[in-house]
Design brief:
Number of strands of chain A: 14
Structural class of chain A: alpha/beta
Largest sheet of chain A: 8 strands, mixed
Strand content of chain A: 15-25%
Largest interface: A-B, 165 and 166 residues
Strand order of the largest sheet of chain A: 3-2-1-4-5-6-7-8
Oligomer: homodimer
Helix content of chain A: 40-55%
Distance between the termini of chain A: 70 Å
Shape of chain A: globular
Chain lengths: 496, 496
């Protein structure tokens, strides 16, 4: 199986296929996606827009340059030249088997072919392939560009190498591959979801609860916990000090109680369908699909970032992914070789995120410093202070910052920072950042900073490395003719 | 039913009862909890410690002074004098009926008696009461002090007033009451959990997945979404542009597929029990129950705060709760009348949270300013700049901050800030904050700030109200003899 994957062939460009396209393209892969829908390009590009938006909030880690996405009209055109093939066609076994066989014909045998099926059996899906050993299930969750889980499941004839290759590929995309030990219809996650779903249908059918009430029972209750611990660990904790056996003794008898109707399946007749659709429409209200998707993505990003602060569950997956991105050292967006150094550098753009504002919808104080700190981080990468340099035991630390708040700024406002070097010596960089609204270039705040180069192991100041000093000097020299910015060199005093 | 609730009687002080005790006490209620376990006091006090820890991270909003918790040994002692009674006894119908009847005898009829049962029917539980109309289900989720959901369900003889009173009481505790329209065994949330749980037991029974793998399938996958949107809305979104009817057409047939074994119930024999216990032990590893509880609570807090930035789902519940706390204007912890004003004021204590550190485990720059900003907020409340004052159209804004970073500080370090007023006039307060490690009083950083009083509607500076100026002046006068702190009045320059 291929060690280096550049091109990815996608069979099917619906909700799941488009999600794969976005996730792979954001990780630098070039995509050929086969979809016959005449609107496929528009739909995939809308998913890509959502994905870019979500990732810009998800991480500051440097991503590789995004890959290209090309929509093609045959299975063969998607499969040819691909280093990895992912199928996301409708859940019809016969259709999948016949189209997988066509991809199998044109792809060299060292290319993995994976299927996104939610629950069809891999041994059956691989039955029509000349090279069944390179076929595996890689079952993702919507939105593919944000959800970490991908269930990896081999069929009877899948090789171990294939499972390992797929696992490695998905992990490099920032996902959490769960290698299944057995193939069963519905795999693991969909069996659990399906059980809950059938019960939900009964609750609607019997008028016990509406769609919105069922969702509230989940998201204000057990769903909050399921975001980081599954049922088993949550129940263990619910057992308190005596542990799992005690919990089972307490809760076990409930298995015999009439607490679910799942022994039976509701008939999905027109009446039940109408009820579900009407309740779903009422629940969604005026919100359109893109709006709901963005709301979902914003919540997912907030949860992933929240869990990242605990370095636990999906937060640990994100943390590991970011570490690999930093280590890969993809070039930052600012290129010292190609930029005009005779004016303040435009290093960082962002916007006022919903969580950055106070009850008056104004950006809170500490977020100003965060934005300036992010600009400083970019400056440091530009002058060569990167993870390798950190590992060598050196870094610049901020020892002093003078902030001036000139204008309030509301949630959602687009922002950018420009940075001027006021002076430098072999240990210090005297920096002046200016924060602007990007829509009308109003100056909002300034931050004057002294950066001190330190030996991080000895915790004391020392001279920076020659290649770093050379870059600092190059920018400082270019900035020397610039006027001192208004407000630099100030002290705080009442008599001003 | 009683409009003002001060004392709460709790029947049962296990995991759920202790959680109620903590949530109610943190909201200022005095608690009498009946529990016969000789270790009840220790266990309840450990839950209270966890709850205080979680709430200190959850919100900066001012809480009322915590109520007292008293463990008593009879149902009558818990019920007498209570304004609201909550029963959390073992899930045995006959036991609950007989003990509820004893509480019913001693409590005046205008006191609500609620049961925490996960699924027993209210019409049966109220059958032995002389005043069945004041009985209602209030089914919470573990940990009760953090989870918003409480299912409110009346029996055949429950009055509407009782349901309304219980709903109002739970909402005032920061919870999200879900009023059920019908009584069914297991209510809504537990039916959904039970369905998923039975499927999980089959997966373990059939060796398809282990306890840890099942939990991973949830928390890296559908569980992440269930923290803010339930199954119905998530499926609607998965349907993409064509909507819910289209989704049902696609996914409906799966109901007939063998994607769940829930038509049947696994026999909970010794072999299955042993397997579950062994897998649960392996999953928990060396972590003890308190450690797991704290991990769970930290993740819940991170998710609640993450969702709060989106003002959605449980985050919207937290946001509303905090607004009522701010509006209630509980006195801040610093009391100007009782404090020594002749030294810098110790206004704010915190610690370096896990999410505040960079990859070197050092607190990130912007978090310093956040801690100083929190200290400023306390100062403003102390001088009378509170939500009422804001609503009057006035506030102090930070116009300038000079930060000096003197020492690095690691995750987990306890911190406190002291605040000196360097000068003031009718529009401005010149403040100097010092940040210390609390364990050894090392000075870590300082922040000199100029606060400017503004008419927030006109967006221009103006004099503060006389009662505010009087308090500022009182502190400033007491601070006048203090030495100017080292580092005040500085400008940033290379030649220092």
């Amino acid at each position: 199986m291929r060690a280096a994957i550049k091109s990815v062939g996608l069979l099917g460009g619906g909700v799941i296929g488009a999600g794969w396209a976005a996730r792979c393209a954001l990780n630098g892969h070039d995509i050929a996606v086969c979809d016959l829908d005449p609107e496929a390009e528009r739909k995939i590009s809308e998913v890509m827009t959502n994905a870019r938006r979500a990732w810009s909030r998800l991480t500051l880690a440097p991503l590789p340059a995004a890959g290209s996405i090309r929509v093609v009209k045959t299975i063969e055109a998607a499969a040819e030249g691909a280093d990895f093939i992912q199928e996301s066609l409708p859940e019809q076994e016969a259709l999948k088997i016949s189209l997988l066989a066509r991809a199998d014909k044109v792809a060299p045998p060292d290319v993995v072919i994976a299927s996104s099926t939610s629950g069809l059996l891999p041994s059956r899906l691989q039955s029509g392939l000349a090279h069944p050993e390179r076929f595996v299930i890689g079952h993702p969750f919507n939105p593919v560009y944000l959800m970490p889980l991908v269930e990896v499941c081999g069929g009877a004839r899948t090789s171990d190498t294939t499972k390992e290759s797929a696992t490695r590929f998905y992990r490099a995309l920032g996902m959490h591959p769960l290698l299944l030990r057995k193939e069963v219809d519905g795999f693991v996650a969909d069996r659990l979801m399906e059980a809950l779903w059938r019960e939900a249908l009964w609750l609607i059918h019997d008028d016990v609860a509406t769609a919105a009430e069922i969702d509230d029972a989940v998201r204000f209750g057990p769903g909050l916990r399921w975001a980081f611990m599954g049922t088993l660990l949550i129940y263990r904790i619910a057992g308190g000090e005596p542990g799992m056996r005690h919990f089972m003794a307490q809760f076990g008898p409930a298995l015999k109680w009439p607490w679910t109707k799942l022994m039976d399946v509701p008939e999905l007749d027109e009446a039940l369908l109408d009820k579900i659709v009407a309740q779903s429409d009422a629940q969604a209200g005026a919100a359109g699909i893109r709006e709901l998707e963005q709301l979902r993505d914003d919540c997912l990003v907030a949860i992933l970032q929240g869990l990242r602060t605990q370095d636990y569950a999906a937060g640990a997956v994100l943390d590991r992914f970011e570490k690999t991105l930093w280590a890969a050292g993809h070039r930052s967006e600012f290129d010292i070789e190609k930029s005009d150094l005779t004016k303040p550098l435009r290093l960082h753009e962002t916007r006022v995120e919903p969580g950055w504002v106070d009850f008056n919808d104004h950006m809170t104080e500490s977020r100003y410093l965060q934005v300036f700190g992010d600009a400083t981080e970019v400056l440091l990468r530009v002058i060569g202070v990167d993870p390798d340099y950190h590992r060598g035991g050196h870094n610049y630390y901020t020892v002093e910052t003078h902030l001036r708040h000139l204008r309030e700024v509301e949630g959602g406002t687009p922002l950018h920072v420009t940075t001027q070097i006021l002076g430098t010596d072999d240990k210090r960089i005297h920096v002046f950042h200016s924060l602007y609204r990007s829509d009308d270039d109003t100056l909002l705040a300034t931050a004057e900073q002294m950066q001190l180069h330190v030996d991080t192991r000895a915790s004391r100041a020392c001279a920076a490395a020659p290649q770093v000093l050379a870059r600092v000097q190059r920018i400082a020299t270019a900035h020397r003719p610039l006027a001192r910015p208004a407000g630099s060199g100030r002290a705080i005093a009442l008599d001003q």
